[in-house]
Amino acid sequence: MTPLEMQQRLSDLIGFQCVLVALRGVSPEASEEMLWQTLVSELLEQYGLRRAWYGNRRNGELCPVVLVDSRSAELGDLPAKIEETSSLVSSADLVLPVVVEGRDEGRLLLYAGGNVAAERAEQIRILTAEAATMLAERRSRLRNERALKQAKREAESANRAKSMMLANMSHEIRTPMSGVLGFAELLARTPLSAEQMDYVETIRSSGEVLLTLINDILDYSKIESGKLQLELLPVDIRSAVEKVVGLLRVQASEKQLCFSSAVDPAVPDAVLGDVVRLRQILMNLLGNAIKFTAQGEVSLVVSSRPCEDGRHLIEFVVRDTGPGIAPADQTRIFDSFRQVDASISRKHGGTGLGLAISMALTKQMGGSLWVESEVGKGSIFHVSLPAQAVPVAAATGSRLGARDAVCLADGPGLRVLVAEDNEVNRRAILGILKLLGCDAEATESGEELIHRLANTIYDVVLMDVQMPELDGLEATRRIRRDLPPSQQPYIIALTAAAFPEDRFRCLEAGMNDYLAKPVDLGALAEALRKFRPVPAQPLRSGASV
Fold first, then answer.
1. Contact 496, 171 (CB under 8 A)
2. What is the phi/psi pair of residue 239, to 5°?
3. Which residues lie closer than 8 Å to 198 by C-beta, 6 or more apart?
């Protein structure tokens, strides 16, 4: 090989690398035309060609896409369509087919003013194949992106449909449940025989079980969509444990189980956390332990140890002498809608969501949940939660629940107007308000409600949201906009719409508080306590809405 040939060979190798670098430098967002323009321009510059162009192949014809000429020729210099038998094609010194994803898509035509050396032609062929590979990858990526976007749109649409279905299901079940539990509450406070009281308690407890199932499904939906928000408030751990144990003691007693709890003195009196979700975790674990234990004992032990960051690691250990869980099942019991015994002959009911929700809540709190079990020897569930200790004076052990030390004169003299289009619920709420000592009236629609408020002063309005003609949200906006300060009532949403966004919409419309149906006596009493009556004032002359 002569020195001149070696120099030419080295020059071509350098040119090859330069073209390759230029190709790979094309932005992934650039068009296909830009990719071909880069290839053709670089080939012309690095290999000293006179002219090069690329055309898409369609039905035996070539449609030029890019053209680069040493004389600065424009793409318009070429016809829009060129027969493959045309002299423009046959006169090319090198014609390379372009195959993308197995499909013959075009031709790259090079004019060098003479034969192209075999080694140089091979280099250009490799560069053309590289461009075709990059094009295939680009198209594949775009297809994947489109597929992902489409899948995302479909998932979002399905999620919206699911959320709407859950919201409708919740609303439609809560509405009649409000009447069932409301009248069960009223009936329980009338003179009854022991047998009748047992029947009433059965109705009430069955209704509360159904409500728990609804809440589990809604909680699972919120967790799955990432919309579940935790509170960070002082929690009295001992009070919270006592509350949970107290609620479950009757169930354990009915099965003649030894049911106990113990809190180590080293456990801080109060920590920052979400008391409702903590109670939910403990209720699920202890409730399951009682449900699946036929004889023996169920216990809860709470301990604590300090962490390096100054916080405490609170350990909750739930033991039972139930049937135990096989090793193969110890992981899947935390899956959604899964139970160890899923057969139609299983003895115990439930949605299979309790442990899944408990696991998700524990993780969201930064903790861990696991089980140790041996078939025939019971199970031990461990919950470990990191928490910051706080002064006990600010802590709370629980929120006020149904029938928790409710004074039957919590609302003496309060004038309450109930806006509720469902007759059964309307009668139930009026009965409960009577128990609380309120002077209560009812209306069936938003329009009638506004008319009543324009002519009569009421202290409190219990506002349903879904009403015919004028819904509770728009009715509230009109009240806040049109009534003078002296006639503005304290408005409490009382609705079967129980999602967090429903509460937000109610408060945003101008309501003062929010209660989800079915409402219990204690929760309603607590909401009414927040209102303080002001001295009655005469109506503004000509007041109207």
1. yes
2. -65, -40
3. none
Region for 83 from its dihedrals, namely left if φ exceeds 0, alpha if ψ lies in -120 to 50, beta otherwise: beta
- The tokens for 404 are 């928790």
User: The sheet that has 490-495: what strands, in order across it?
Assistant: 439-443, 415-419, 460-463, 490-495, 513-516
Instruction: Collapse the DSSP code of 146 into the 3-class scheme (helix H, G, I; strand E, B; otherwise coil) and give the result.
Output: helix
Residues 6+ apart with CB under 8 A from 101: 136, 139, 140
Residue-wise pLDDT for 26-71, tens only, equals 988 889 999 999 999 999 999 989 999 999 998 889 999 999 998 8
Residues 445-463: tens digit of each pLDDT: 889 999 999 999 999 999 9
Confirm if 354 and 212 have CB atoms less than 8 A apart.
no
pLDDT of residue 378: 92
Q: What are phi and psi of 108, to 5 degrees?
A: -110, 120
Strands (E), 407-465: 415-419, 439-443, 460-463
What gap in Å lies between CA 381 and CA 282, rounded to an integer? 10
Residue 211 reports pLDDT greater than 80: no
Sorted by sequence, the CB contacts under 8 Å of residue 139 that are 6+ apart come out as 100, 101
Which of these, 324, 320, 350, 323, lies nearest to 336 by C-alpha position? 350
User: What is each CA distance from 340 to 61, 290, 336, 349, 351, in whole angstroms?
Assistant: 67, 16, 12, 12, 12
Longest dimension (CA), the chain: 119
The residues that bridge with 439 in the sheet, in sequence order, are 415
Q: Find the distance separating the first CA and the last CA of the chain, reported in whole Å.
A: 103
pLDDT in tens, 185-209: 888 888 989 888 888 888 877 787 6
> Is the whole model's pTM more than 0.70, yes or no?
no
Residue indicated by tokens 């456990």: 267
Of 10-14, 96-100, 163-167, which has the strongest mean pLDDT?
96-100
**Pairing mode, strands 82-83 and 258-263:** unpaired
Find out whether 498 and 174 touch, Cβ atoms under 8 Å: yes
Whether the CB-CB separation of 396 and 417 falls below 8 Å is answered with no
- Euclidean distance between CA atoms 96 and 106, whole angstroms: 9
Q: How far is CA 270 from CA 236, 395, 401, in A?
A: 4, 6, 21
Q: What would the two tokens of residue 310 be?
A: 């100054």
Amino acid at 249: R
Angle of helix 521-529 relative to helix 423-435, nearest 10 degrees? 60
From CA 262, how far away is CA 286, in angstroms rounded? 14
